[in-house]
Structure formats: C-alpha cells, structure tokens
## 1
Amino acid sequence: MVEANRTVVIPLKIPEGSRSDFHQTILPYAYCQQEAVDHCWPDTPTRPDDLQTSKRDAESALYDRLREDTDELLNANLVQKAIKDATAAIGSCKTSWENGDRISKPDFYDRELPGYTMTYDKRAATYSRYEATFSTLTGTVTCRYELPAEIEGTPYGEYVLDRRWSFSTSKLVFDGEQFWLHAVMQRRFGDDPVYAPTSDDSGSDTHEDTHRVLGVDLNVDGATAVTSTGQFYGNADALNAYRTEQEQLRGELQQTGTRSAHLRFQQRRGVEWRYYDQYAHHVANSIKQEALRVRATHVAFEELTRIRKRISNLPKFQHWLFNKVQMYTAYKLERYGVTVETINPADTSRACSRTDCDCVDEDNRDGKHFECLACGYTVNADYNAAKNIGFRYLSDNLSNPAGRTRSSGQATSQLALVSGTLSPIGDFAEHEWVSTDKPHPQQASESSDSERSRVG
Ligand SMILES: [Zn+2]
C-alpha cells in the first residue's frame, strides 16, 4: 500500500472570544513539550547518540506524570502529541549534529517568537471539508475555513475537497496574529476497499450512488448505543452506577483534606476518566464493526446540541460521552471510507419507524416500550428511534442532493435493518437492506392516507 501526503495551509476563522481558548491551551501543551525535551536532552550531551529520540520511550516515561501535572485538563492526545513534537524536534537536532551542524536544545517556551504550533490528531480534532473542531482546555472550538474566492486549481480544491484524500494528523498554527490549519491530507493507493464501488466505471471511485445508512441512537440508560440493525451496545446503567460510586469515593477523599488524600483524589480522577474513555472506545468499536459488517456507507447519529434539547438536563458527562462515541466512531471508520453524519433528531423517538406509517405521537413511547397508536407496531423504543435516525439521514440527503454529480434518479438509498421481529436479547442472524421511499414527503403522506383508510 502506498501513501501520499500533502500539506494544505488554510486560514482559520476563529469564533469571537475563542482565541483565548487556544492561548490557554498552549500553556500546558508547551509545558509538556518542554518537559519532554528536558527528559530527552541530557545536561551535557557529548555525541549525537546521547540525544533520546524515541517517542515511545519518552511517552512511557512521561505520559502519566504529564497528565497529572496538567491536571487531566489537557486532552490526552494533546499530551501525546506534545511529547511527539519534542522527540521530533530532538530527532532533527540529532540529524543536524550527525551532519556536523551546530545545534541548540529546542526551547518551546521561546518568548522571542510570538506564535506557537499544536499538533492535533483526529482524536483531539474533527476535520471536515469546511471546518475543523479542536479540543481546548475549556471545551471544543469549531473554526470555519477562510476559503479562496476561486477554489478551482487551489491546493484546497485539489486535496481538501477531493474525497480520495482524507485528513491526517494536522497542525494548528498561530503566527502571532492569525490562526492557520496546516492540514495534512493523505491518500492511500491500492487500499483494499471494504465494500466494492457500485459501478464498474473505470477511473471513477465514487460510490455515492448508493447510500447505505446505519442509524444509531444514543441513550443515557439501557444500552448506550442501539443500531437500526437491532444491535445493543454498552450498558449505560452499569456505567452510571460506577460513576455514582466514584463520585462518593472522591467526595470522601476531598473531605479528608490531607495532601495524600488530594493526590489520591487526582489519581482516582485519572483512572476514572481513562475508564470512561475506554468505554467510549468500546462502544465506538462495536458500531464500527457493525457498520463494516453490513457494508454501510454512512453512519447517522443525532446532533448533540439537539439531543441536549430532547433530553432535558442532559448531564455534561453524557454529552461528553456521546461526543466521544461519535468522534471515535468517525475516526475509526474514516479509513474505510464510511462517513459519520448527524441529523436533527426532532420526533425520532416519537415517530413510528414503519415505512408505511407516518404516525408521530408522544404517546407512542413509554420508556423503552414503543407501541404505535396508529398501526400497533410494537418494538423496543431505542431501536425504533435508531431506524428513524437512519431514515432522517436518507431523507435529508435525498431532498438536498447538492454536490452529487450523478442524477439522483439513479441513486439507491437503503437503511440497514433486521428482518423479522426484534427483541433486545435476540440473535439477529438475518439482516437485510431495505430500500425506502419514506424520505419523500409526498409519498409518505400518500402512503399514510392509504394506511389510514386501511386502519380506519
Ligand atoms: Zn405506526
């Protein structure tokens, strides 16, 4: 497999008031960089080999301490990237030294330089074609790209907009005035695709004629993730119980007030957050496996800001967890060409998900039990929601075919579903792809009319 990389420099539009989020994040980040330099650079090196350049060694020696030193506030991946920046800088010093050049110890605190650079991999940032979201000390910041008036022929048009290229670990650069994304675009040649392109047209690797969507519903109780194929992943109830227990433990330690209690408090927090992070990875991995198994081209989630409205008082922790699950799923699936999308979740939990029924009613749902008042369809409520989420994505996508090069008449849209009856503890050996016309509002109302006359 051959890989190609291109760096595209893109000016960023920083939202009002968010510049300081980055200026604050660089402080612990530069601290980690400099600690790593100090670790790898002995007091008086006498030969190039005295310089340590192994990222792996530096990480295993420093990672835990730096996480603690930065109070776990700095994103774990940023700590790793800061260490990597340091070993990379020392690596180039070593090469210069071997070539007989004069070198000096890297100084990431150099205040003579007005700017800074932070390395963001795809677990600390989400990159899309028009904007990027970065994790900072105070939360995430989304920055739109400042695009050239004429895109054609620019590196942006050639690499960022071309779907054969995908984002790799990139750099956020502040030059003292302006923020830039040094986007590293990567293309793999000869990669064995998981699903074959649907057309035989040579020279074209678009597979956009077929949308195969896996809908995923995220929950604060029961299973954390439920798919439109009827799979249930994670145990939110057990997770919540663990959290309550940890909160009590931490509360006791905090009340003790001694220095050693404070240290144990910090350690506990580290253990705890690693546990949540692993949990998110586990759920995301399960979704990924399912998406690949059913050959999905898209995985659809609910938009998090909207979930917040749907689940009133959605705790910050759940928001954090859902965000991680979505980010990790996107990250894990990107290399397979499967994209993760989000939809407006309005009504997805109240609407009947049968394609021949368009009943939307609050009373359809009672906790985890869904029973359609119109057609009597009875099913697990989260599974019903997951199907609606998948349908919604198809609907939004079909009614808004912008950017599609072929006529949408040829497009087929499918939602991954199980056939047969569903219960949360079954084994669903038989899966099928269901094509649906539901996305078209007119057709939906036509079928509902016939449905009503049949029911009535
Ligand atoms: Zn119904």
Note: The pocket of zinc ion is lined by residues 352, 354, 357, 359, 372, 374-375, 377 (CB under 6 Å).
## 2
Amino acid sequence: MTAGLEASPADVAPRYQRFTDRRVLVTGASGGLGGQVCALFRAEGARVIGLDVVPSDGVMACDLADPASIAGVVGAALAELGGLDVLCNVAGIQTFAKLEDLSADLLHRHLAVNTVGPILMAQAVAGSLAESRGNVVTVASISALMGQPYNAAYCASKAGVLLGMRALAVELAGRGIRVNCVSPGGIDTPMITGAAESLPTDVDWTLIAKSQSVIPGFMPPADVAEAILFLASDAAASITAANLVVDRGVIW
Ligand SMILES: NC(=O)c1ccc[n+]([C@@H]2O[C@H](COP(=O)([O-])OP(=O)(O)OC[C@H]3O[C@@H](n4cnc5c(N)ncnc54)[C@H](O)[C@@H]3O)[C@@H](O)[C@H]2O)c1
C-alpha cells in the first residue's frame, strides 16, 4: 500500500495471474508509478526488468535522454529476459515555468525524456515484440489533452508522445504489436511534489483551478498501474491506438 494513503482496491484484491512468465520492461522503475507497475506485474507472475536514470534496488541505469544509453541497456535487458512481451514507458519529467521563463533547454529536455525516449524505446524492442506478438503501454497524461498554464513544455511533450504512439500503433499493427497509452490525472508520487516546487510564486490560481477532478484528491499509483496492466494483458487483445484516461473525472 502507498504510504500515507487509504488502501486502493488494487492493494488488497487477490491478483489474477495474467502475466505468468511474460517478459516485461518498465522505464521509470524507481519512481512512484513505475515502481508500482513493476510490483503488480511481478505479483501476476511476470519477469520484470526496470530501467531508470536514478538507480535503485534491482533497477538498471538508463538515461532516456541519451540514445546510446537506450540502445546499450535495452540490448542487455532483452538478452537477460530472452525476448520481450511488454514494454511500459512510464518514466517522465515535469517542471512548471511561465512562458517568459521557458528556456530552449527546458523544452528540449521535456521532449527528449517524455517524447523521444519512449519512441526510441519502442524502436529498440519492436523486433522482440514482433516475435512475441507483444505490446507497448506508454504513460502520457491528461496534460496531453488540455492546455494547462505554466506547463507548455510538459503539455507539448505529452501530446507529442500520445500521437507518436498512435502512429506506431498503425505502423506496427501488421507485425502483431499493439500500442496504447494511459493518460493519468494527478497521482500521489514524487513528481507531484517536485512539480509543485517548480511552480512560480506569482501564478494566476484562477487558471490553475479551472481543471478539477470530480472525485477529489490525488490517485494512489496502484489505480493507474491497474489500467496499464489491463492494456498490457490479453483481455485488451482488440485494443490498440487507444488512450485510456484515468483521472478521477477531470472537467475543464
Ligand atoms: N504524478 C502525476 O500526477 C502524473 C500525472 C500524469 C502523468 N504522469 C506521468 O506518469 C509517469 C510516472 O511519473 P511518476 O508520477 O511516477 O513520477 P516520478 O517522478 O515518481 O517517476 C518518474 C521516474 O522517471 C525517471 N526518469 C526521469 N528522467 C529520466 C530519464 N532521463 N531516463 C530514465 N528515467 C528517467 C525518474 O528518475 C523517476 O524515477 C510519468 O511519465 C509522468 O509524466 C504523472
């Protein structure tokens, strides 16, 4: 169970065994959502390798902003797993900035990690996924779907990865590979705290308050991980090019 939160149904439900011996690669595995995704896949019998730029227990070091890092680490991970059934692109970054404070560097960094990295990951594993008739699940965001103030870098990067993944779904369908996205609203993870700290002090809160979820509060990571596992499972065999929004009903 996530510290400080009420139990999510996902924390207490008996698990199906949908992924027995399936081989799964998860980026952002040291983070709040990625760690939960790894745990749920393992609870359902999968063999999981996690990747992250911040090394943690059992997680391989990989910088998604560095194509050479992706190529090297993915090659080693595929060799260790002996192929691949599921790629989960979970890693991401978010820093708020007002337009006048946005730097090209900040914009490029968001695009590198949130947009280019997941597409290069898919490229690196496509051959293995074609052999297993596997699938890709990428975490976009509701920020891909709406204009959010002080969030242009993140919104642009998430909208980019959402449509990039949809393009791959079309391109890879003939090779038996499904490609889907999950778009979460606010999740109780370190990203929320870090992003909040980057919010400038002199913002217009009426703009920020325009998007609210009808079920209040941040979501436990397990609730979003459940959606990721569903899309990765055989139960979603007819779902590709989809974007599953998990946001407690955000209206704007
Ligand atoms: N937390 C939220 O409210 C929220 C809402 C919508 C979408 N998301 C998305 O969910 C995903 C998971 O985020 P989270 O909430 O678990 O945040 P998190 O900060 O806990 O985890 C993100 C992980 O990505 C890793 N990462 C960052 N840069 C990387 C790089 N260059 N290479 C490899 N790994 C890198 C970080 O080290 C971290 O472990 C992200 O894609 C995020 O954009 C989060």
Note: The longest helix spans residues 104-132.
